[in-house]
Amino acid sequence: MTETLNDGSFNDGPFNIGEAARRSDVSAKMVRHYESLGLLPQVGRTDSGYRQYTGKEVHTLRFIKRSRDLGFSMAEIADLLKLWQNRRRSSADVRRIATRHVDDLKRRMQEMEAMKRTLDHLIKGCQGDHRPDCPILDALGHEACAGKH
Q1: Are 126 and 134 within 8 A, CB to CB?
Q2: What is the tens place of the pLDDT at every residue in 24-74?
Q3: Closest among 41, 47, 50 to 17, alpha carbons compared
Q4: Which of 47, 124, 125, 140 lies in the 20 to 30 Å Cα band around 64?
Q5: If you compute the radius of gyration of the chain from its CA atoms, what whole number of angstroms results?
């Protein structure tokens, strides 16, 4: 594990990308992706060009992973990272991002619940036997035709 000192600095590393990925529970591919997006700063490299990460970058990767696990978008994560790294931030700014995200999650959950109800209704109307008649396909076909008009 990364050891954090009392002053907030990190005293371990350097790590190659595989070790940084393992310590942060993020794939090496995603580490490169986050770096390309600017979520993770460019890191030092060995003479042969291999990336070298410190405990600080591993800590940042864990922050990004936890944010992704909570469903934040990359843009939201970029904003949260800036706020996390700014000790003079206003917690109101952080709260605003989180509140917007919760509102979006609620909206998406309502949409998914409506989809589930529709599918449950269609499934109940389907005999599921050897006959070709299928109200699920009929409903999907009807909606597809209705959308073209």
Answers
A1: yes
A2: 999 999 999 999 999 998 888 888 888 899 999 999 999 999 999 999 999
A3: 50
A4: 47
A5: 24
In this structure, is the dihedral angle defined by the CA atoms of residues 82, 79, 16 and 65, taken in order, positive or negative?
positive
- Phi/psi at 76 (5° precision): -65, -40
Between the alpha carbon of residue 69 and those of residues 26, 55, 77, 132, 133, the distances in Å are 11, 21, 11, 42, 42
Residue with tokens 């990336």: 51
Q: Residue 56 and residue 146: Cα distance in Å, rounded?
A: 55
With the CA atoms of 85, 44, 56 and 101 taken in that order, what torsion angle do they form, in degrees rounded to the nearest 10? 50
Contact status, residue 81 vs residue 34, Cβ threshold 8 Å: no
The pTM of this model reads: 0.75
Residue 51 in 3-state DSSP?
strand
